[in-house]
Structure formats: C-alpha cells, structure tokens
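Hi team,

Filling in the usual template for the complex we talked about on Friday. All components are listed, including any nucleic acid strands or ligand strings, so the model treats them as one assembly.

SUBMITTER: L.P.
PURPOSE: interface mapping
COMPONENTS: two
RESIDUES: 540
SEQUENCES:
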Amino acid sequence: MSLLQAEALTRRYRTHSLVGAGVARTALEDVSLSIAEGETVALLGRSGCGKSTLARLLAGLEKPDAGKVSYRGTPLSMLDRPARRAFRRDIQMVFQDSPSAVNPRFTVSAIIGEPLRHLTELDAAEREARVSELLEMVELPASIATRLPSQISGGQLQRVCIARALAAGPKLIILDEAVSNLDIHLQTAALDLLSQLQRSEAIAYLFVTHDLRLVERFAARALVMDEGRIVEEAGADGLAGLKHPASLLLRQAVLPALPRRMAEHAKVQPASTNKADALDPV
Amino acid sequence: MPTFLTIEAMTVAAAGAPRPLVENLSLTIERGRVLALVGASGSGKSMTCLASLGVLPPGVFQTGGEVRIDGRSHTWQELRGRHVAAIMQNPRGAFNPVRTMRDHAVETLKALGRFDSDADDRIASALIEVGLKEVKQVLPLHAFEMSGGMLQRMMIALALLSDAPFLFADEPTTDLDLVVQMRILDLLERLVAERGLGVLLVTHDMGVVARLADDVALIDHGRLVEEGPVEAMFASPRHPVTRLLVNAHLSLYGMELA
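RESULT (copied from the run log):
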C-alpha cells in the first residue's frame, strides 16, 4: 500500500471581486500519483503549472473539487480522529518563504517545539531534549534556540523549518520550492542534509521545484506538470529521455555550467557520475 | 558616447555597525561588456550597486568613494537615468500600483526632459524592443495585471527609454520562473550586443554568470577578493570563496573543479 495516493484530483479557483464571482480557473485537472514509503519523487514544472496546488492538496491543506487523496489506503475525508492525527504527524511540509512560515514572535525553540506539543505525548523536558537533538540533526548550533527568526540568516531559518518538519518523526516531507531562495552552496548543502536524513530516518520526499538540476541530484523519479496536468514521468534512467514540449522547455532553460567559450574544452572535468551526460551544459 | 564607468574606492557603513558593509571597492564597467558582481547573500554586492546610484536605504551611509564616467566625476542626479539605468530584483515592487505602464513610461521621459511630440513612438519602440509587442494592450495595464516576466521586460523598456549607456541589473532574474529567466537573459545579451550597453550584473547564481558575463568580480564581506575574465574564474578560481561558489555550482551538473 502506498503511503499517500492521489486519484484524479481536480481543483479550481474562482476569483472574487466587488462585482461578484469571476470565472473559475482550473489549477489542477485529473492528476493521479502515489508515493511509497522512503522514496523521493520530484514534481517539476513552471510557475503556475499547478504543482504547489497539488502539494497543498496532498498535505490536506485544501480539499479537491473532484478526486481524492488517500493516506495509507483511507481517503482523507474518512479519517477518524486518531488517524487524522497520525496523518498530520506523518505528512509534513516545508515552504519556500520561510520567514512567512514561522511566527516572528516565537523563538527557534518554540517554533520547532510546536508540532511536538500538538502531535506527540512528550512533556516539556522531553520536548526540550528533542529540540536540541533536531538542531544538531540540521547542523545548527544549540545557541540558536533562544533567537527569534529575525535574528538568524535565511539559510538558518530554512533549516529551522526543516527541523520543525522532522520534529514529530514524519514519513513524508513535502518540500515546496523549499530550497529555491537559498544561495546555491546552501541549496546543495540542504539537499545533502535531506538525503542523509532519508537514509537514517527512512523519510519519503515530494520535492516540488522548477529547477531540473536539483531534480537530477536529489530525486529518483520525476513528474513533469504543465497547465494543471502531469504530462510526463521520468524514471530511474534519468531526465535525458524527457520528450514532452514542457519538459524540453525546462531543459532548455537550465543555465549553462560553464561560460560558452570554455564549455567544450576545460580544466573542469565531469565527476564520476553519469549526471553530466543527462544534463549536457551546452 | 562614454566608454567606461568606474566605481572608485566605494565604502559603505551602517549606523552602529563595527565594520563597513562595503570597503574600498573599485570596479570598471566597459561599454558592450557584462561585469558580474558575485558574492554570497549579505556580502555587500547590492549595497555597492545602491551606493553607486545614491539610493542607499535609511541607516546606511556612503562614507567614501565616487563614480566616474570616462574619468570624470558625476553627481548622482547626473548619473541616474542619464548615464546609468537600473533594473532590480522583484520588479513588482518597483512600480506604482495605481499607475498604468503608460504613466510610468511618460514619467520616465518627463524626468529626463525628453517628453516631446514623438513620446508615443519612443515608448512603443522601447516596448517592442523588449518583446512586449502588443503595445496597445500593455500600456493601459497596472502592475498587478502583469506577470513577473512582463514586469521585468517593462523595467528594461523604461531603462531603454533613457538611452543610458550603462545598466545596473541587481538580481534581475532571481524571482522569475526558469523559462522566463532564460528569455530575459537572452534579451539582455542582445541589448549588450546591439546597443553596446555596459552592464553591471549583480547575482549570486554562477549559472547566470556563465550564461551572460564577460568579466567577474567577487565580493566577500564587503571587499573585492578576486577579479578577472569569466573563463579564468570558472577554470582556476583562486580565492576560497570563489572556489566554494564555483564548486557548489558545478556540483549541480555532476562536475567538479580539476
């Protein structure tokens, strides 16, 4: 049984103005996917293709207009109280804009401790110990626990949000452009951290992004979305075989690895992976 | 027409900060070339750009340095709009939300004293040049009715209206969709080639540098630590911070420094 499964999801948004309801826009149409325990699935697409909407439906933050999301085989709408609590604990989300995803008046320790208060039975002392453990896990100094979000850097705050998602021992973390705002070296560091946590904690990821380069590095399976639909799936053989026009456009938009004049002959060598073949820099 | 712009010994300090945000930084921007100013978040690259235009935020002061064009010193009033046009990250915030695109274009021309009978033609040709071909549909729009990519094109069109020979572009594609980013970078490249614009490109993305830059200057903790042609920067970076940035970038492509 898959951990989380979406069947034929459709979601429409209607804009409202002073003069009444506007035309409904379909953000997501007939989308199905399933995520197994411990796997990493990438959801790839341009701005406005519906990938964030899908992520929000999967996390139970919104309800679909048609179709259903099932958690361990049970539709979300049918979950009883204990099962709903388990769902909340197992499925966590990390957002792109970390400053707006935290309460600016909470300390780092309160931010990370919040899911522990609601989703676990830990007492205050145990929570404090768990917060220290989590800070260590995301490689932040313990001294940061008493700081406010405004007193730490963007990269550190993103790690705090990852620590919060990890707090209650989730089975799946939905990363909605969760590293896009960071400097590249911080992005790769964050992804390395997430991969390492996947091995130690057996967590599945749904990695929502528009950046093909990160997908190659991080995910085993990638789904390409365009205009509210999943148009293509790339498997373990990499992204080289993608054929849909939307996928090709994303490929073409990948920035070059090297300046044009040195792309062919350079001192820089491909490392011993096959990623360089899949993402030809030219 | 001028041929080069120099930022000389720029120093910027924040009130109460123990050390300057930008320290004694000098750069030369040549016509027809793109100089990328690169550094991590908080390294002082945007502050350098803002100080050179005389638009530092409250609480931050320029304590030394000046901007020269062909060796001649200028006030900011002379520089802004006439010699140097600027485009910024997050173009949405740069537009007045209750004014149309036409209002912005007219305001730009008036500020430069160039609002003449041919204004409509000049505005139309600037919009067409940046790829906003449906001029009549675009001009009545407000910022909220346009996408990020359209707004950045409009910013560039306003920059072109000024006929300024130099362009400061501060993270011009950072918030944009990857495909839109590709098109904006293509556009900037074409403008450099066709109009001989001299561009100061502030970015943290080495992919953008590889795509567009001729020369690179690396800033770390407010100081210039490495400078040179883009090829040298990618092939044999010397400073540890440059190596870190180039290596992190290359690792995305499964490559590493030799």
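MY TAKE: Residues 4-83+164-251 of chain B form a domain with the Rossmann fold fold (CATH 3.40.50.300). Chain B touches chain A through 38 residues (CB under 8 Å).

Thanks, L.
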